[in-house]
């Protein structure tokens, strides 16, 4: 584990060195660190943001220095974090295995704007792509890019498709897409370069909800294929 | 009571000090691109430092007030008038009902922050009234001000009443914020940086070019970031990077080698290598960068950067106390 400055008011805890070797275990390790730091509620820490192999810690150097005997805020916070994480890792974690969140998806051609491109890329038929995509188990690596956008790992390797050379200027809200080896969902209409293969009627981000995002890092996700009629019914 | 917008200008948004605590949901921090300037203006107007004010981009803003208010502004070299009086940066100004405040187009620089006593009283979203232009929420439904708009203002504080008394019918205060906070630096801008975690991934040529060469701000810059062009900063390695957190001030380098200096509306995570970070006390300079401006970077240590920030905060605390003494 390594702790590096992210400018003068944040730092990054690099929890695992090689995320790709064991994505599932890596993500669990990252979430353990996130939980331990959250529980410690260090005065002067403003917020924590996990992403893949890292947890970013945003802090107020003024408040950190008020609560430390050192005048080096980064160094005193770094020491605290190291102590919290090593104390946390000595405890046996009892992470209850949460059941997967089901996301209904309509893979209708009208929504699957880039299915033809994925067909060409993978050499598989549309039906086969959908079958494989809908039967895999996914996990949220992090939320980012835009409010509520989940980056999901677990895409069957044969479905990996490079991003579009020219991003779309307006990807419709709810679009399910493949970007390289990952899959994700655009919560709102936005520009984007991933290959759209379906659409969910589920609202993934709502400013009136607390928390505002339906999914969070670590969540397990499964897609359930729905018909156009079901989509229209659920969108009402 | 309220203020009506006779002319909304090029891009004026409601901003406070931004949203904290929602990065993990992909929600940007946003807020004033130069939070320090908004804090100083709020102190001068008798507000809480976190009160919502206006971020004015390239000027042409005209406001008419329904009642008496104390106003203050900080930022670029704008010409600002209350009725027919010049209203310099970093001063408290008294504006009467039906009088007009004008923020004209600046000679250089991009942005100014205006505080109005009582603050702009719009609904708070995730603990902030800041306008998230891409998320389309906060402020006025996530959009900039438009002509003819009416903005609701909050109640005037006891502190503002004392400031009004201390002005003695004068329009503009004799006192002002410390000179360095209201200095309108023109010409080439210097930004201090500390090394980013991906600094070692760049070739020695790229590292020295960053600290030696001049970079020019591109026209497609916005509240997310200032796109720079100059010597292409080329990586020495080709490792695929996983996305991780970025922050305002982060200098990230896409594969084309042209660095992007991230500002307040930057996305929460990014996958481009982070060659460096502009230090927090220099973000006010970064927030003034406009298309065609030139910028140079110089390196400081993290310890120096944090020391400068602690000093600025001490000075701000002193200024706050000084203002209370002045108007008690």
Describe, in plain words, how this protein is organized in 3D.
- The complex is a heterodimer of chains A (236) and B (328).
- Chain A has 236 residues and is an alpha+beta fold.
- Chain A has helices at residues 23-40, 61-66, 73-90, 115-122, 126-135, 228-235, and strands at 2-5, 10-14, 45-51, 54-59, 101-105, 137-143, 150-153, 168-171, 175-179, 182-185, 190-192, 195-199, 220-225.
- In chain A, α1 (23-40) crosses α3 (73-90).
- Chain A is elongated.
- By secondary structure, chain B is of the alpha+beta class.
- Helix content of chain B is 19%, strand content 26%.
- Chain B is built from six helices and 20 strands.
- In chain B, strands 12-19-16-17-14-13-20 form a seven-stranded mixed β-barrel. A six-stranded antiparallel β-sheet of chain B has the order 7-6-9-4-1-11, with no helix packed on it.
- Classes of the chains: A alpha+beta (236), B alpha+beta (328).
- Chains A and B meet through β3, β4 and α2 of A and β15, β19 and α6 of B.
